[in-house]
Specification:
By secondary structure, the chain is mainly β. The chain folds into four domains: 1-75, no CATH class; 92-280 and 319-348, Sandwich (Immunoglobulin-like); 381-545, Immunoglobulin-like (Sandwich), CATH 2.60.40.420; 579-766, Immunoglobulin-like, CATH 2.60.40. Residues 98-152, 235-260, 733-752 are annotated as: Disordered.
Length: 782
């Protein structure tokens, strides 16, 4: 996968030259210096449109130097930097702005603080007002053309249930290029050049450093206002990435307008208001009666900031905890997330208060801290793991020609190279996110004697397990999956060290190869995959500084007051479904390009860069289709109906982490393959299919309507068209619901000059109203 350190200097130079040459091809195409026809004529691309297996272009091409070497890219240089020589950077906690309601005719707008310079947040996009003035007002201030808000106009993209879930706070952030020479993965590694990385910053200025962290609580809806502060010219991207962006709240229960994956990307100079409602799934359904459960009604709640609770409608078994947000610009997700468009979200509730000492019969008192009423993170730590590659100059590199799955050779934690983290001898909660592109991880914790240290898994994908599961190795973790674990450092001597070790080896990006032993992983014998081994070091110390209240010092406690209760939540039962769908993840799909114009909806990479889109999804044994934003693969006709889905991977040489937007599913089984102890009774939004694997899940959709997606979260597969759109219809008999979304809505088609709409196509195999629809297809196992 990567050249060994022992490869000759000639082979290293050869592979690096191939990488640079591919980058030059991309640059020349992007600025029109060369055409695809010319590249084909010169033999740089094959008749099928793929990059030619030519020495000097492909790192996998045979060479006169070392023709037998099967690996491709050279290893990323570390410039003498050793692992575990920089402290872990905590995620950058964001501060919200308060919002004040004000009436404008029949609308309720939200005013930002005086002097902020921010336009009001509105139910309908400012694009609506731009259109009404003939494009003379509310114009993009950077370009002088198009609307200032990228959210599409009119009721289709009006914020659903706006007054009911009226935002009280706003997080105003921008995505852009950090100031010159301010970002590096380690202080002794080269600083990243302009537009090699993009990062979020507060307000309208991008900053360098760690990804952001946003803390929200049930009962307090928020606006996430995202400014696109990226370069105006698409070619000014440092070699990869799109300057049009879209932010997905993974996996918030939000209307499609705020989901970030409804083909509503936006452009430099614009902002987009995402309405994050903190709604419990199925809030409109009657609160279920759960036998032998005390304080059931109080559990569906959020902290009020004064030691009490704010009740919210819905089922407490639907509460979530650890989420994240990232780019979801179709066809460019891998590049944009890899460059830095990502952050984490902690959701707080009555049971998951983030206060380990408050005892009210509802709060679970999980490790967190107690200086704040809610949301303490002194002992509740977000860990975002990703893998990266940099070239021989130390600059971040991405191979846009790779559609199988790009995996890096260097490990980052919170966007920093292999850090260490100081902990007290007490219990900690770690929220572990797999935030890479294609890599599967498998973590184990070992002490200085290389002995396994147990961990208690309490949540998967932000959903509590019914009870903690004690393991010495966490399950394989695909892109987008989260595991919340408790580690008890109590009794460990000060100055002792532990390491979190990745045991999952990759040989190619399309699937993991195997789980290695701890001895192998720590020995350095896994030469083919440099990311196997220790990724993060824990150091036991006697005091640490508080991040919740700066200036406070925490010392070794005489008594750890946090708890890990034997019961965390209750199960949502498996019931008979209204219908079954078989959803297969396959190769050999039709192209998303229009057969006449060659264009994609949305716009996709030049044919020279992405000559084909080999992946797709098949519903109920019918056609295999690649992603088209204007194609509805299936329809959810009525809120509250229970469906069972069989997620199927028919390829023995592939693995897919499959992500469902908007909703979680109860894991039922893996056919004849036993579920792991962590999977059993789990609720998730990402499922690892395994080679030739099936996973059966139960889903039930709720309050909001519109267009959502389901896809493989190997972002290279996703960007090569392994994604489908599904639409949810709202209940016309419920006056709270959007009456606009009782039917399938048109597809937005964004441009810098504004958004138009296109009439979508609905596939019959996914439409329960179609006479040929099979509610229990023959392709489903009995």
């Amino acid at each position: 996968m990567y050249l060994q350190r022992s490869a000759s200097r000639a082979r290293q130079r050869e592979a690096e030259n191939a990488r640079r040459n591919r980058g030059e091809i991309v640059k020349a195409l992007s600025i029109g210096e060369v055409s695809r026809r010319e590249l084909f004529k010169w033999g740089i691309f094959t008749a099928g449109g793929a990059l030619a297996m030519t020495n000097g272009l492909s790192p996998f091409a045979p060479s006169k130097v070392e023709a037998a070497v099967p690996t491709g890219a050279p290893r990323s240089p570390t410039f003498g930097v050793q692992p575990f020589t920089q402290p872990l950077q905590r995620l950058a906690l964001q501060t919200p702005m308060p919002l004040t309601p004000r009436t404008r005719g029949t609308e309720v707008d939200l005013r930002f603080p005086a002097g902020s310079g921010e336009p009001d947040a509105r139910r309908l996009s400012w694009h609506t007002d731009f259109t009404a003035t003939g494009g003379t007002q509310h114009v993009n201030p950077l370009t002088g053309r198009g609307p200032m808000e990228g959210r599409p106009p009119g009721e289709y993209f009006g914020q659903q249930r706006w007054r009911e879930y009226l935002p009280k706070k706003a997080y105003v952030m921008s995505l852009g290029c950090p100031p010159d020479d301010t970002f590096c993965f380690h202080k002794d590694l080269p600083h990243q050049a302009e537009n090699k990385v993009w990062s979020f910053g507060a307000g309208r200025m991008a900053e360098g450093g760690a990804p952001p962290l946003i803390k929200v609580r049930y009962g307090e809806p928020v606006i996430f206002r995202h400014y696109n502060n990226l370069p105006l010219e698409e070619a000014d991207n440092g070699g990869f990435g799109s300057n049009s962006q879209s932010t997905h709240n993974h996996n918030g229960h939000n209307a499609s307008t705020g989901d970030g994956a409804s083909n509503a990307h936006f452009f430099p100079g614009q902002f987009y208001d995402y309405h994050w409602t903190t709604t419990l799934a199925r809030a409109d359904m009657p609160t279920p009666s759960v036998p032998n459960v005390t304080n059931a009604a109080k559990r569906a709640s959020g902290p009020d900031g004064k030691g009490g609770l704010v009740q919210v409608p819905g089922d407490y078994r639907e509460l979530q905890s650890t989420l994240w947000f990232h780019d979801h610009r179709f066809f460019y997700t891998a590049e944009n997330v890899y460059k830095g468009h990502m952050g984490m979200l902690n959701y707080y509730s009555g049971p998951d208060r983030g206060n380990e000492v408050l005892s009210d019969g509802v709060n679970l008192r999980l490790p967190s801290g107690s200086l704040l009423d809610w949301g303490n993170i002194d002992f509740d730590v977000n860990l975002a793991f990703s893998d990266a590659v940099w070239d021989q100059d130390g600059q971040l590199f991405f191979d846009i020609f790779d559609v199988q799955g790009f995996v890096g050779d260097q490990v980052l934690v919170n966007f920093a190279y292999k850090p260490y983290f100081e902990v007290l001898p007490r219990k900690y909660r770690f929220r572990i996110l797999a935030a890479g592109m294609a890599r599967f991880w498998r973590f184990a914790l070992v002490n200085s004697a290389n002995q396994l240290v147990p961990m208690k898994v309490i949540a998967t994908d932000g959903n509590f397990l019914p009870a903690p599961v004690t393991v010495t190795q966490i399950d394989p973790q695909g892109v987008g999956e989260r595991f919340d674990v408790i580690v008890d450092f109590t009794g460990m001597p000060v100055n002792s060290k532990l390491r979190l070790v990745n045991l999952m080896e990759h040989e190619v990006g399309q699937r993991p190869k195997q789980t290695r032993s701890v001895a192998d992983a720590l020995s350095g014998r896994v030469t083919g995959d440099p990311a196997v081994g220790a990724a993060l070091e824990f150091r036991i110390v006697s005091q640490v500084a508080s991040v919740d209240v700066p200036g406070v010092i925490h010392r070794t406690p005489t008594r750890d007051l946090s708890q890990v209760p034997a019961k965390l939540t209750d199960l949502i039962p498996i019931v008979e479904p209204t219908r079954v769908r078989v959803i297969e993840f396959k190769s050999g799909a039709d192209s998303p390009r229009d057969p006449v114009t060659g264009e994609c909806l949305p716009s996709c990479p030049d044919e020279t860069i992405r000559p084909e889109f080999p992946y797709g999804i098949r519903i109920n044994g019918e056609g295999t289709y690649g992603s088209v934003a204007n194609r509805v693969s299936f329809l959810v006709p009525k809120p509250g109906e229970v469906e069972h889905w069989i997620l199927r991977n028919t390829a023995g040489s592939w693995d897919h982490p499959v992500h469902l937007h908007f909703e979680e599913g109860r894991t039922i089984d893996r056919g004849a393959t036993p579920l792991s102890a962590i999977e059993r009774n789990s609720r998730k939004d990402v499922w690892r299919l395994g080679t030739n694997g099936d996973v059966r899940i139960q889903v039930r959709f709720g309050e909001y309507g519109g267009a959502y997606v389901m896809h493989c979260h190997n972002t290279a597969h996703e960007d090569a068209a392994m994604l489908l759109r599904y639409d949810i219809l709202t209940d016309p008999n419920n006056p709270k619901n959007s009456q606009t979304h009782v039917s399938v809505i048109p597809t937005p088609n964004p441009t810098p000059d504004g958004v138009t709409y296109v009439t979508p196509e609905l596939l019959p195999e996914g439409n329960p109203f179609h006479p040929d629809f099979e509610p229990f297809p023959s392709t489903a196992p009995t």
